[in-house]
Specification:
Structural class of chain A: alpha/beta
Order of helices and strands of chain A: EEEHEEHEHHHEHEHEEHH
Largest sheet of chain B: none
Number of domains of chain A: 2
Distance between the termini of chain A: 32 Å
Number of strands of chain A: 10
Helix content of chain B: over 70%
Oligomer: heterodimer
CATH topology of the largest domain in chain A: Rossmann fold
Shape of chain B: globular
CATH architecture of the largest domain in chain A: 3-Layer(aba) Sandwich
Bound molecules: adenosine-5'-triphosphate, magnesium ion
Largest sheet of chain A: 6 strands, mixed
Chain lengths: 253, 336
């Protein structure tokens, strides 16, 4: 479905993503992990067109989309969330999502249909659908849900979910994981899920790729990746406990 | 709904005014308020989305001078001269707006670009003094007895009052259309965060360009009608920094987030200008601009929603107090 080849992104002289290649199959949940600053969000920014790519190719459903502007990438069927939520505070909750529904698809839809789809997307992430609900009533977890609802309202085929966020407790992260699983099951949407800690993610994803310093260092089934010596090394240096937890989570109980 | 009834009552009064024998001077003030109210509304159509143009005098000047020059030099009827001016203004808006929006010239930088544009148009008018009369201004040639539909010249102020009223009503109607459109939400969204808006499919450049073109077109239309009404145009009064700031001040003072806000701004500025003129005369040139500048700062700090916006908010807070709807929501937000 999505094939990324030798993707490279430089900021000035700094190489944030270095010749990363990977593919996503339709219907899959692919985990994209790596320590802080390893380039995960940058991969998303480049694939989604938010940032221009330096080199490499991005093919979606057989067509090159590398370098397309973000609105066109969205119209092709790829939606993304932002790691740090970026709600439109001037708009109500429903209006936030309605903008996505109305503008996010590659075809004109009626306004009434857009409002319906906005409500559906909000219901899918279990946020209030009333017209009076406001954004500033949301906490950290709610804002992450809003990001997801906005992405879903564009009726995407692929969602790039940048979920790596401090501030969510264990239960909230479990909830988020279940939600992504539900979304795939109900809507058949393919998902790339970014996290920096492996714990919860490993339970849900089909496959994992691991980035470190902008390079892909491992790829495979969650369990195999969690036991990969290079991955353990990367995580032991900074987050040994997380790696151990991830290995536990990936082990069949 | 009482609001609707109030609107119809207000409209009836406005329509009836020319028939009840309002003194000429007040008729003149009313026409000015309607035309300027229309121009300020045109500015607010884009200004409310953070597209703060400090150069709308450019579009006003293009509208006013095109119609006057087309009439005097080519003998072109204002019925064609005004659309020509509108077209030119839209063209200029695209030429300036497209690169700005494409390359993300936003906020202060956008304001500076537009500020320069307003001055460029004024200086161009002055430089072309052989045709435009330079800073002395330009008087469209009188046609026959002074009243002609073909020349869009009317000796009676009442006729112009009706024209200005229709113009103003059209402006309010368009403002409301924009306000009720999906594009309004897209514009509100991108005015806060262009990346986030683009990521959900909003074509940021196109949206901004469209609203700018609309605003420029309406402003030039206002300029054309203004020229026809006064039958005198002057680079200082229809283009350049002075009038550009006056537009910004009036729209912000009245309230750029409500349909009638800019019109309230027109009432404030015109009454203020007339009072100043009568009180101190015209010798202190630039005093009104200075006062606008100072008041603009005060408004932005203390009453960002403008007079009308502030009043509406106050009213809503009063009436919502009983139901507790707004207050309740605020508290939830604060607690989260
Ligand atoms: N717009 C930018 N300009 C310059 N450098 C950037 C920019 N965005 C990211 N970087 C740098 O690129 C590197 C990768 O950042 P990125 O945000 O992709 O990491 P990440 O894997 O998402 O980290 P985290 O887990 O903390 O979210 C970092 O060193 C970061 O400082
Ligand atoms: Mg990140």
């Amino acid at each position: 479905m999505l094939a990324v080849q030798d993707l490279t992104k430089q900021f000035g002289g700094f190489v944030a993503v270095n010749r990363v290649s990977f593919a996503v199959e339709e219907g899959e949940i692919l985990g994209l992990i790596g320590p802080n600053g390893s380039g995960k969000s940058t991969v998303f920014n480049v694939v989604a067109g938010t940032l221009p790519l330096t080199a490499g190719s991005v093919r979606f459903e057989g067509k090159e989309i590398g370098g397309l502007p973000p609105d066109q990438v969205c119209h092709r069927g790829i939606a993304r969330t932002f790691q740090i939520p970026r709600p439109f505070k001037r708009l109500s909750l429903l209006e936030n999502v309605a903008v996505s529904a109305f503008y996010g698809q590659n075809r004109d839809i009626s306004r009434s249909r857009a409002w319906e789809q906005a409500e559906e997307a909000l219901a899918l992430v279990k946020l209030p659908t009333e017209a009076t609900a406001t954004v500033d009533a949301l906490g950290a977890a709610g804002l992450k849900k809003l990001e997801l609802a906005r992405a879903l309202a564009t009726q995407p085929k692929l969602v790039l979910a940048d979920e790596s966020l401090g501030g969510l407790d264990e239960a909230e992260m479990e909830q988020a994981a279940d939600m992504l699983q539900d979304i795939r099951r109900q809507k058949g949407i393919t998902i790339i899920w970014v996290e920096h800690i492996m714990g919860v993610l490993m339970r849900v994803v089909d496959r994992v790729i691991v980035l470190d310093h902008g390079e892909k260092i491992a790829e495979g089934l969650p369990r195999a990746v969690a036991e990969d010596p290079r991955v353990i090394e990367v995580y032991l240096g900074r987050q040994g406990t997380a790696a151990a937890a991830a290995a536990d989570a990936a082990r069949p109980s | 709904m009482t609001g609707r009834r109030l609107q119809y009552a207000g409209l009836a009064v406005l329509v009836a005014l020319p028939f009840v024998g309002v003194p000429e001077y007040y008729m003149h003030i009313l026409v000015l308020i309607l035309i300027w109210g229309f121009v300020y509304t045109a500015w607010a159509i884009m200004g409310r989305f953070g597209l703060v143009s400090l150069g709308h005098g450019a579009f006003l000047g293009i509208g006013a001078y095109t119609v006057a020059l087309a009439w005097n030099l080519l003998g072109l009827t204002p019925w064609l001269g005004i659309p020509l001016g509108v077209g030119l203004a839209v063209l200029v808006a695209v030429v300036i707006g497209y690169p700005c929006f494409r390359f993300r010239v936003v906020g202060h930088y956008f304001a500076l670009v537009t500020l320069a544009l307003g001055e460029v148009v004024r200086l161009t008018i002055v430089a072309l003094r052989d045709h435009t009369g330079g800073s002395l201004g330009l008087t469209p040639n009188r046609y026959g007895e002074g009243t002609s539909l073909y020349a869009l010249q009317f000796a009676d102020k009442e006729v112009f009052y009706v024209i200005a009223l229709l113009l103003w009503l059209a402006g309010i109607w368009i403002w409301r259309r924009v306000d009720a459109s999906m594009a309004r939400f897209a514009m509100d969204a991108l005015s806060e965060d262009e990346d986030a808006a683009a990521s959900v499919g909003v074509h940021v450049t196109a949206q901004k360009l469209r609203i700018t073109m609309l605003s420029a077109a309406l402003t030039a239309l206002g300029g054309g009608v203004y020229a026809q009404y006064l039958l005198y145009v002057n680079p200082g009064t229809v283009s350049g920094i002075g009038v550009s700031l006056q537009i910004v001040f009036a729209a912000i003072a009245g309230g750029m987030f409500t349909a009638l806000g800019p019109t309230v701004g027109a009432m404030i500025t015109i009454v203020l200008a007339e009072t100043l003129r009568i009180a101190i005369g015209t010798e202190v040139i630039g005093l009104d601009t200075t006062i606008y500048g100072v008041m603009l700062i005060l408004f932005i700090i203390f009453l960002p929603k403008g007079v009308l916006g502030g009043l509406i908010e106050l009213y809503e807070r009063r009436t919502a107090g009983g139901a507790g709807a707004m207050a309740g929501k605020r508290e939830v937000g604060g607690g989260a």
